[in-house]
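Data deposition worksheet. Section B asks for the primary sequence of the deposited chain exactly as it was used as input, without tags or linkers unless they were present during the calculation. Section C holds the resulting structure in token form. Section D is free text for depositor observations; keep each observation to a single sentence. Incomplete worksheets are returned to the depositor.
Section A, Depositor: J.P.
Section B:
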Amino acid sequence: MNLRMLTPAELVIFSKVHLFFALLLAAGTAALPILAFFVTPQTAEGLILRSYALRLILLYLIIPSALCSFVMGFYYGFTPWGFFKYDWLVGKWFFTLVIIVFGSFAFRPWIKNTFAAAQRLGMQALEDPVFLSSLKKVGIWGSVQLLVLVGMVLLVVFKPSRNPPSR
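Section C:
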């Protein structure tokens, strides 16, 4: 693939946009356990709204920002950073893919379950084992995913490598 190399000024802008999507991903990921564990609706409408908010955050914030961040990171592979030149970069690739796959295939059914149960049962959903289990999974695994994102930030900041390339 023959991509044009970015000028230094374009690379700065590109890096800032990449960081913006990473921050959106982190904010959305942090919102999931906060909504799951710390927001306690008092009405059926509140329960439905919380489940709807979880759904919106996943579908319109987390998944798109993770995909945009991944695509931009993919473009970085065609720069002097390369795809597999640095161990920490390979780790970042791996964890980004895990976040995308896990967000798409695990969180979606859990959030769908909470939304469906809240709509169907109203406040009785608080006694439904499927609703409670799904909400708990969203909170716990949302926290785990946030820790993975923090780990990715640490990878970027400290850039550990077994065999650093010679300059």
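Section D:
Residues 16 and 22 are 10 Å apart (CA to CA).
The first helix runs from residue 8 to 38.
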